[in-house]
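User: My advisor, Dr. K., asked me to get a structural model of this assembly before our group meeting. I'm new to this, so sorry if the format is off. These are the inputs:
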Amino acid sequence: MSTTTPRTLAEPAPPEASEHRPPRRRPPVRWQRVLGWAALVVILLITLFPFYWMLRTAFSDNRALAAQADNLLPADFTLDAFRRVFGLTTLEESLAQGGAGGRIDFWLYLRNSVVVATSITVGQVFFSAMAAFAFARLHWRGRDTVFAVFLSALMVPGIFTAIPNFVLMKELGLLNTFPALVLPTFFMTPFAVFFVRQFLLGVPRELEEAAMLDGAGHARVFLRIMLPMASAPITTLAVLTYIAAWNEYFWPLLVGQSEDVRVLTVALGIFRSQTPQGSPDWSGLMAATLVAALPIVLLFVALGKRIVSSIGFTGIK
Amino acid sequence: MTVATPPAPPGTDRRRPPPRPRRRGDLGAAVLFLVPATIGFVVFYLVPAVRGAWFSLTDYAVLAPGSFVGLENYRRLAADPQFWNAMGVTAYYVVINIVVQTLLAIALAVLLQRMTRSILVRGIALLPYFVANVVVALVWYFMLDYQIGVVNVLLGYVGVDAQAFFGDPALAIPTIALINVWRHLGYTALLLFAGLQTISPQVYEAAAIDGASAWRQFRSITLPLLRPVLALVLVVTVTGSFQVFDTVAVTTGGGPVDATRVVYLYIYDLAFAQLDFGYASAISVVLFVVLLVVAIVQLRLLRANESDNA
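Assistant: The format is fine. Below is the predicted structure of the whole assembly, which you can bring to the meeting.
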């Protein structure tokens, strides 16, 4: 999956454990609280400022940026940068606006990112949930050994398998196709299997047995009982998977450079490298990063609460 | 990619199932349920891992079928100044990235715990982590631009000369390391914050009754009790840090003069620019081993399995 982001394992903890009230200590001396808040505000400002600056620059006129480098508002407000990024300008217009002139069409890259991230999420979450069911609810010899083998894949750095996987895609003639982008993470990731398994382990046995007595098979138990019961953690997993797939750069860079399958991250890298050294199309570049970041930021705003409270860590390594 | 705790299971009933009238376990069903995931695991993890190890013993180059060369690739890397440069640059990056990030994350986690319960505040802190590396890199690339970057404008206000953050070999790696601190800080802090939640409030109350100052409480209670969690967080962040690629690839591309040619980028160039798959695989095997060793050493040093809470 991602090559530069850390991966962590976590064990489920009852929500009361991770959310329980903080230690109620004596309120510290007043100036300490003031200092604490000041530090917190500074950190939050530094966290948010680059987002604002991206926005401000995306709505700026590229030719006006240099003269108004310290203007907190967009320099000569305009939507031209977005028109360039979505390929709505002619080459002449683009150059006149201070654009790079290369052919770019972020609608297409946006569509490609949606196709890739959606396919990966649907496949990975469903198939990983199936595997998790086999590891958590079924009883068979060698179960824990097989699970440990699956988990061991967490230790392998992405680049170690990326080279042979690239060769495989080349041999299959799949380079520059959607299947090449999607397949390696379509069937499972160790993290996804682990994540769902942890939840399924705790589902009470009685529900399953009642269904079995009514004559339900394993498939029915999985689809009608386990999936609905696990809908909350599965939704969280789906969001995390979608974000990871959306942000992935390394693998699409290897197998998906051609324009008809190029995803946003790869397109951004190419856009940046096409930018002339002397006078970069900064506002175009920031408009493009905004297009790439906005869907995820919106997703995060919509589901942030769930994600924030799911971040926890007791670790199994 | 991520770290998250699955929400609590609906029950905590983990006991073995009562003996049921079933003849031979669920092996048949289990096989069916595992078919897709096993295909994925075997085809895209297991076989590639074996194949990668095999490539490292050949001079495979995609266009020409490779032949077995024994340990030649490993002898070559031992004498390759570019390889050692890449390892050195990566280590330098990891040290700056991890030291700064961990110290700030501890501070932020304690601040969050003491100051506010707000989900909004935690959400804002976490936001950068969910934005793509490439996006983060490009926004900072603009903000740190020599001529019109807002950071240099601000430095000008306080009388500091403009800095070529990405063009100066001495600044490039620290700059990239700090950009990634910006992206990962909130996330790391939230992991530690979750660890802080497990420390019993009574310990602090007892200390407060004894008149221990906030700093004393932090040193004598928070840090020691947090250590097991800290150790695990460090293993994860260090492992991730060694694999830095995206940020470098879209900003400096390895320059100036190899000052930021991290090992991931070196492997990438060898494999996909020079098609030297055998040699590139050998270096990725070495990287894998280095990561394993570093993880084991960290767990040993930090005695992750033991708590001071005795």
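One thing worth pointing out at the meeting: Chain A touches chain B through 140 residues (CB under 8 Å).

User: Perfect, thanks a lot.
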